[in-house]
Amino acid sequence: MSTTPVTSGAAVITGAALALGDDALVLSHRLGEWAGSAPVLEEEVALANIALDLLGQARILLSLVGDEDELAYLREERSFRNAQLVEQPNGDFAHTIARQLYFSTYQRLLYGQLASGDGPFAGLAAKAVKEVAYHQDHAEHWALRLGDGTDESHRRMQRACDALWRYTGELFQPVEGVDVDHAAMESAWLASVTDVLGRATLTVPEGPRTGAWAAGAGRQGLHTEPFGRMIAEMQHLHRSHPGATW
Amino acid sequence: MTAVTAGTAETTGAPGVSDAAVAAEQAAYEAVFDAAVAADERIEPRDWMPEAYRASLVRQIAQHAHSEIIGMQPEANWITRAPSLRRKAILMAKVQDEAGHGLYLYSAAETLGTSRDELLDKLHSGRQKYSSIFNYPTLTWADVGAIGWLVDGAAITNQVPLCRCSYGPYARAMVRVCKEESFHQRQGYEALLALSRGTEAQHAMAQDAVDRWWWPSLMMFGPPDDESTHTAQAMAWKIKRHSNDELRQRFVDIAVPQAEALGLTLPDPDLRWNEERGHYDFGAIDWAEFWDVLKGNGPCNEERLSRRRQAHEDGAWVREAAAAHAEKHRVDKHHAEQHQHTGKHGEAQA
């Protein structure tokens, strides 16, 4: 439970903590789905490591504004504030890596900025930015191996980068209470991703960077269909035993 | 052990060396090996060792490594449904540890000249086994707790003596594995305790899980001593330090008071303290079930192995890509070095 003093901007902070916390919670869950199915044993360890870092971040963020389990297990789909990118199904390993590359590049920039400020997330961000630097490094190395590996891996990685491209615009829609320069972050993100894809012999996708929903849809509680099934699985046991402690 | 190192092939194969000389040399190596084992010294990868010792270790370490990676499946089955974020973090960390244990153990097997790929092939084709316990399903959340308490508890009982195993790399891997396993066991016990003291439904869930996992856990120690084919030789080599039945008894003696503390019962009407022996007596184990599961007829044999094969096949293109990338990178590096040698730095790849 949170002991953080409630300030006049409580609602703003709640919305911001939920946006950042839900991103971490949902991506951690998706990565957890890999357990036992990774392409090589070293990746079982790496993916679990990243999932655990993200879950740790989510728990801190959600606990800032409420009870972590109530928030994770008892909210309805429309109340989740994560970006649509992180809820996208794992797909093949290339899809997972493309999602990691896009998200960890964003998260590293985000936490870097938050860590240098004095807002409510500065402490968390200072710690998390080190974890996220590893996540980005991991994603970048795999993007290079897959992009510049075999014909098949190149094809798969390009397809994954293309498919997830339209979910990347949402990451830079301003979130109230997340006190960063979103426009600067977006250009840094584009430069970084363009550089990695180039070195991986991949083409920067050309499509629009938002989906059919208005940009920022996930942050407003509008999610894609797979997300409902994901949280149904996640919440089922907890909801089946109301009031129980585990 | 340092006196004799590998590299005997050249000398024994040299022309002019008589059969008698080869035999004498062989005997000398064996004597050094036997003396090292008798003196409780560690055998290291470069030391001479009997082929049967090497084969026995590879078999045991491989089975152990396979058990770690197959054992991820029944627990991973609950990661996405873990009922609190704290439990979810603990479970993910545990499944991750198992992957890590698999890595140490495959590396230990590599020191004996057997690659991970070779061992995985044998697992996938059914030529090597993993612990039969993982052929039982995890039907409820309480099974995660029961596995931690009973299955990891049995594994620790088996594995602690392996920290003193005569083969150095295996013994050292086991020191680390055992530390993590004892954390796993504590978290399993603690998860069951929370259920046992929770709602009526949670308590029933915990009892049901213990009822299903108790007997298979006792079977984890392997067949009774008089039916165990590997025990005598493994004990002589100090790969194994205690017999199956000794370890099983030790586990029962530890588990019974723990079950009482948990407020759960063990499904054995014959379980009672024997003052004379200073141990708990327990009922007859259904060895027919044990052999049946071992033969492939357990509830999940097919599922576990096909999931493992599927993951391996699905990952083939990823492993090929990594290898191709490394090869390209190696060639690039080689070219860059050649350019440097001929003074053409500027033409080296960007």
TrEMBL record, chain A:
Q: Which InterPro entries match?
A: Aromatic_CoA_ox/epox, Ferritin-like, Ferritin-like_SF, PaaA_PaaC, PaaC
The domain of life is Bacteria
Keyword field: Oxidoreductase
User: What's one Pfam family the UniProt record gives for this protein?
Assistant: PaaA_PaaC
What EC number(s) has UniProt assigned to this enzyme? 1.14.13.149
Is Oxidoreductase given among the entry's keywords?
yes
Q: Which GO MF terms does the UniProt record name?
A: phenylacetyl-CoA 1,2-epoxidase activity
Classification via SUPFAM superfamilies:
Ferritin-like
Q: Which NCBIfam families match?
A: PA_CoA_Oxy3
UniProt name for this protein: 1,2-phenylacetyl-CoA epoxidase subunit PaaC
Q: Tell me the organism.
A: Streptomyces flavochromogenes
From TrEMBL, chain B:
Pfam families assigned: PaaA_PaaC
Region Disordered: which residues? Answer: 322-350
Record Gene3D superfamilies: 1.20.1260.10
Q: Residue spans with biased composition (Basic and acidic residues)?
A: 325-350
Q: Which InterPro entries match?
A: Aromatic_CoA_ox/epox, Ferritin-like, Ferritin-like_SF, PaaA, PaaA_PaaC
Read off the PANTHER family from this record.
Answer: 1,2-PHENYLACETYL-COA EPOXIDASE, SUBUNIT A, PHENYLACETIC ACID DEGRADATION PROTEIN PAA
Q: Which named protein is this?
A: 1,2-phenylacetyl-CoA epoxidase subunit PaaA
